[in-house]
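Following up on my earlier message about zinc ion. Here are the inputs again, as you asked, copied directly from the submission form:
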Amino acid sequence: MLTPRYYKMRRYYAVLGTSVFFVAIFSMYLLLDQAASGPGINSQLQEGELSVLEAKLQNLEESLAKNRDTINQIRDTVKSLAEGKNQPVVQMNQQPNQVNIHVPEHRDTAMDYGDAVKYNGVAASVDKDECTFGDTPSGTSADVKMLDVFDLVKFDNPDGGSWKQGFEITYNTQQWEREPLQVFLVPHSHNDPGWIKTFEVYFRDQTQHILNNAVVKLLEDRKRRFIWAEISYFSRWWEAIDMAKKKQVIELISRGQLEIVSGGWVMPDEANTHYYAMLDQMIEGHTWLDAHLGVKPRSGWAIDPFGHSPTMAYLSERAGINAILIQRVHYSIKKYLASVKKLEFMWRQNWDHGSSTDMFCHMMPFYSYDVPHTCGPDPRVCCQFDFKRLPGGRVSCPWKLPPVPITDTNVASKAEILLDQYRKKSQLYKTNVLLIPLGDDFRYDKIIEWDQQFSNYGKLFDYMNSNPRMNVKAQFGTLSEYFDAVWRSTGSEPGSKPNGFPTLGGDFFTYSDREDHYWSGYFTSRPFYKNLDRVLESNLRAAEIVYSLAMATAKRHTIPGFNGLTEMERLVKARRQMGLFQHHDGITGTGKDVVVIDYGQRMLEGINEAKRVIRNSAQFLMMTQKDNYKEEVVFFDLDEKRASHDAMSEKTVISLSDQPTKVVIINSLAQERQEMVLLLVSSSNVEVMDWQGNIVTSQSNLVWTGSDSSLETFFELVFVAELPGLGMRTYSIRDLGTHESPEHSQSRVTILNAGEQDTLVRGSFHVFKESNAYGDFSIENAFISAEFTGTNGLLKSITTKADSKRTSISLDFVMYGTRNTKDKSGAYLFLPDGEAKTITEGLKPVIRLIRGRLLSEVHVTFDHVFHCVRLAKSPGADGTALEISNIVDIRSQKNKEIVMRIKTDIQNIDKSFYTDLNGFQIQRRKTLSKLPLQANVYPMPAMSYIEDGMSRLTLHTAQALGVASLQTGWLDVFLDRKLEQDDNRGLQQGVKDNKRTPNLFKLLLERRGADATQTTSTVPTGYPSLLSHTVSQTLNNPLITLPTLMDADIVTEFAPLTQQLSCDVHLLNLRHLHDMREGESVPGDGALLLLHRLGFDCKYPATTLTCSTNQGQVTLGDLFTEDNVQIEEATVTSLTMMYEKGQVQLSEALYIEPMEIKAYRLKFH
Ligand SMILES: [Zn+2]
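Thanks, got it. Here's what our run produced:
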């Protein structure tokens, strides 16, 4: 609805606008004059361009009457002034009189439309005190700093003898005379929830038998033990077993014979996973365990993830886990830590200024978690103690020394041999307590194996224990029994730091298991699904939040219509499909093709279920008459659809008429957002109204089907939406038919290198084809100007307008091949054939240059990449960064890996660069010349940056990929890999199921404040700026747009927060809590609120942010507007709700320390 006030102002602006316009023309003349005479003018403004400018002016004069856009723009400015939005004037280098000119029907590449949307100088207000955390160097207090270890270790791989990657271990037998060696043999079975077989097929063929057998064989003897990690399988099995067996399971757990370790839905990958999903799968597992078994896992078990992240240690610590175990660490690092007896340490977060995050960690010392590599240093010996490999079975020992059954005659000698291995292994640790895992992948599926292991070890242990000369006490144990014994032996409390144990800071990437075989390929393998996973994550997160708000609102107003059972079941499905994919053969891209398809289908189901929850919950929240809500009456469409799991998403096309069609836009972040919205609509001449009835500036673009062909049935529509934290607003769009709106404009398209000179008319669009390139060109907004090379259309530099400084940033696509030797790259390994080669050299691709008042784009098509760079003229955070999206297609290639390379003149010292760990924290990296190229590639789940004394360039990503910085000023990001062969890590196939794969990035160039000094290169961590955090969060949690299918009676706005949260408090989740009623889950009246206080770097300004910071304070009672959501009570809990830590006074301000995640169980009134 247009308000009368609006009409009145409109007339006023028209008059004012016209007069200002003449002034504008005059000042253009002045500018031109200066340019022609002044020697100091930008060298880019060459004479040729001046004549273009001149021609333009002429044209402008001729089309004076038509030139409404300029008027509109001036009117916008006046309007915002009239509305009191006259914030401190921009510090951008705009001349007061400079006007941006819209020349709709003239071919033009040299000029952009300029700043259709003005930046009004907004920036977050940050108190100086709040900079202390980010400014204080941390990560230096740990005894063992992983960056130093990387400097120290030679990585020379000499032959270590029987322990090939280690050293000869000797011992003195007297050391056990006073205190015997205490051995815990821990039977385990590693069950991948999908790898060679799918989850269901593994369950059917192996896992159910393993668990069934465990119950039978454990009940036979109280001395027996078994541990289990993956709750996806355990819960699947639980559903299938009868009551009697369930009781037996609970009995075994209470006796301590069966221990649940970690207790996550899966054993997640730690490289590619985002902490949102890492934590969510942990919550899903822990809450399942609590509801069905009353179990709280105490120890973490991660024997197979391909490298380890401190984020996992942090989440485990704050979930209430006492100790964790890790295995896949670079063999040279293991050897070093073993040599100084530091394989057990307190793992400290690099950002921790104290010691509160310290997590007891046990690192296994040898090559693998199988039996040959767990009993001691010599696999030839240890293999003989894997009694599944007794002759006649299906597995044997590759060292040709098979096990023999233990008998009265051989027990003495065999015990002696085994004890020697135990004793050697124990020399690598500080205590007299020794952990010996006994298991492998999908072990114990047959009864005979249980008997083989338990009876033979039973005989060995009976002999050892009854022989005082041996000074050993050996027993079957669980993981927690081992850890408890370690603490007992050191006289320390469970979970605490035993005296003399070291602290360690850092991470364990990039993993190598032998030679120069680095596992950096999986940071990128199957990138299509890494991207799909992030789509699922953002949809699930939004679904949780919107559904929790809907349930709270329904409760608040006692509306029975929205009971939410269907939605709750959908949420649970989506959670579990997402959780499953976090598995270390899921998101890693290391499963068989058939398994990848299974994950894909599951994720698509998860996405669709989450979208339905969002749609239905939003519908309820936006209905004017909420009492009328009926589950079966749906009046929102979904925002996008996918034809199949391996297809790219297709946005819903909104069919318009002359009557307004409503679109609801949802912001799942707890901060306000001003952001460009992109929709597909049936008309290219439209009018967009915001929730208050004001017409907003909009732009139409063509939808391209080929280099110069486009659709005529629907078009892209862009406009800037403004949304409250966690809120929704209704925007309306109508087809204007033949009418014109001053607020709407069409983009202008120039196709360069088109081979011919031509002007195409596409409806109301003009497409200018230029036979050749036009020379270098730029697109710009109020914040930056991005300059491109005219011949190939690739980014060349970025100029920040606040300081007029230009940074050379040139983009290219390069390719790696694989080695010509026996060992080649595969799903896990990256083994390149040398340095990458450019694939764009000498090419003159067709370039599409699209300029508009709100959005400008550059499209370039190369053989294997469609490359799009986009700059939004948005006053929000999205205006500060360049958006880069590619569609990669290397299906025609063999043994190739494609990389997007960004070369800059940023002088990063020591080739230091920064990558995130799980989107949670930043780790400094150093490209080391002593290591092969593939070792210098690191995981990038969320961002990577390089910086020098003046600038920081951050590449934000919307999917996990591998990244490297091989030369000073470079950032390489791996986009896809097609590999013909297996790389001998068990998968037994190459990676050839490539697809057309989308990827999405935001490139943010930031300048340091004047008082900032160069960071010291000894600090192992870093922090994104508040702006960078916002860019990352908006990229990973895009706005959701729900078009209405009918004329719906909906409200204009839902704004549940009393005010937006502080800039540095991220609402990680508002996760619905269900109740248990008679063993069944039913929708509850609460939610788990997860708040993460971000650590940030103050040196870079928080441009565009309307939020502020307040020492991490949150008052739960003041969080929500009472009309929508009322909290009845709140409890602080551990991260997965295993432990309650006391009631929260709702009126009291809670203080969250930087980097911490806090969990609050809320009950709604
Ligand atoms: Zn595994």
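One observation from looking it over: The first helix runs from residue 4 to 37. Hope that helps, and feel free to reply on this thread.
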